[in-house]
Amino acid sequence: MSTRGLPTGTVTFLFTDVEGSTRLLQEHGAAYADLLAEHRRVLRDAFAAHSGVEVDTQGDAFFVAFSRAADAVATADEARRALAEGPIRVRMGIHTGEPVVTEEGYVGIDVHRAARIAAAAHGGQVVLSVATRQLVDDASIRDLGEHRLKDLVGAERLYQLGDGEFPPLRSLDATNLPVAASALVGREPELAELVAALSNGTRLVTVTGPGGTGKTRLALQVAAELVGRLRDGVFWVPLGGIADAGLLRAEVAQSVGAPAPDDLLGFLRGKELLLLLDSFEHLLDAAPDVVRFLASSSALHILVTSRAPLRVSGEREFRLEPLPVSDASALFVERARAVGKEFAPDSTVDSICRRLDGLPLAIELAAARTRHLGPEVLLDRLDSALPLLTGGARDAPERQQTLRATIEWSYDLLDSGSRELFAHLAVFAGSFPLAAAEEVCEADLDGVASLVDSSLLKATGDDRFLMLETIREYALERVAEAEAVDLRQRHARFFSALGGQAYERR
After folding, report:
1. Burial of 140 (0-12, 13-18, 19+ CB in 10 A)
2. Where are the alpha helices (DSSP H) in 14-129?
3. CA 8, CA 362: separation in Å to the nearest integer?
4. 325, 321, 347, 343: which is closest to 334 by C-alpha?
5. What is this structure's pTM?
6. DSSP string for 110-156
7. Cα distance between residue 344 and residue 330, in whole Å
8. Cα–Cα–Cα angle for 449, 450, 452, rounded to 5 degrees
9. Pairing of strands 315-319, 234-238
10. Which of 106, 108, 316, 337 is the most buried (most CB within 10 A)?
C-alpha cells in the first residue's frame, strides 16, 4: 500500500468490526451483502466527514487513522448513532500513540493495542484507551476501569463513549490466566490452528512435545484468544506441582470456583468455558476424569499440555514442533537484549539455534549466557550443552530452570525398561530406521512408540526416528562405558552390513 497521506507523529487509530457476522449471514442470506454495503457506506461517510484516512479493510473490518483524537471519537460517535437502528452491530476501539510509518504502513505496539481494544468491545460499543481519553474533552465518556487485553502483557485502563449498557468487556478479567512477562515469539500458525480447532467443535486438544518446546506459553496464548468467546470464562489449572492423580478434581475445583471437589461435575453442568490443564504428563492415571468433565457439559472445552497424549476418546493430539530457525533466532536476540546485549540475528545465532534443536527453553537459557559470553564463544561451548544451559528464571518451576532438569522430568516418568532403551538409542546420531533399533538395541515397536509418546523420541517418517541432540546428550550420560562399547560395535556391524547390501544391489 502507499503510505502517502497517512498521518504521522501522534496518531489516533480507529478499528471497527461487525459483531456476529456469521450469524447475520445465516439470518439474512443474500440480503446480507446489501446490509454490509450500507454499513460500509455509513462508516466511510463518517471517516470522510472527520478527515479519517482509511489504512486497511479486511472483510467487514476497517482500520482508520486520524491526526486528531477528537476527530476519531466524533467519527465513532456519528457512525454508532447512524447504525443504531439497523441489524448490523459494530464494535469500535480507539487508541492514540506515535507509530512508525514504513513503506508497508504503520508498525508498532500502538496498532496492536488499538486492535485489541476493539476486539474487547461489544456490538454498538465504542471503547477508548487512556491515551485517547486524555486528549478528548467529552462528558459522555465513562471509565470502565483497568482491563488486561489478549496480548497478556500488563493492563489497560479503558473508557466507553456514551451511556449504553453492555456486558463486561471481552478482556482477560473473566479468567485466572497469568500475565506473561514477555510477548509470544513466533507460533502464529500453531496459535491460529489451535484457536480454530477449539472454536469449531473440537472439545479436547492435547498439545504434546518435548520439555522446553513452549507448550505452556503457547497454550496460555490460545486460552487468552478465547477469553470473551465463552460465556463462563477461561481457567488455567497448573498441575506441575501435584504428585497424586487423585488430586486433579480438587485442583480444577479450586481454579474454577466450585464449592468442593465432590461438587465439581454438578458445578460444570451446562457451563460454557475452557479449562487449560497444564503439565499433565505425570497424572495420566487421571485421564478418565477429563472425559467425565467433558460429559458434564456439551459446551465445555479442554486444552491440555503434556509430554504424552492422554489416549482417551475424543482427544485430538497436537504435536508441537521446535521453532524454525528464523523464529528461534528472533527469540534468542530478544532474550539477549533482556540481559543488555544488542545484536542482530546472523549465521552464528542461527547455528546456536540449530545446535539447540530450536527448543525455546534451551534458546532462552543460552541467550541468558550472552551476559558473559559472546555468540561465537557460546557456540563453541555448546558441544556440551547441558552443563552450560542453567540459571533459568528463579520464579520458573524447578524443572524449567536448567535444560538437564526439564529432560530429567521426562526421564523420571519412564519405567526401567524404557529408561534402558532410551539410553541405548543414543548410539544413533541422526535419524535411524526401526530395523536398526531392533537389531542394535534389541528394541521392539512398542518400546520405541512409548518413547515417541513421551516426547523423548521423534517419528520423522514411515519407518524412521530421531532423538534431538539436546536430549541425546542427556541419554548418552545414562549409558555405562561397557554398554557403550558394545552398542557402538553392534551399530558398526549393522550399518556395515547395510552398506554391503546396497553395494551388491548396484
Report:
1. exposed
2. 21-28, 32-49, 69-83, 109-120
3. 41
4. 343
5. 0.64
6. HHHHHHHHHHHS-TT-EEEEHHHHTT---TTEEEEEEE--TT-SS-E
7. 8
8. 60
9. unpaired
10. 106
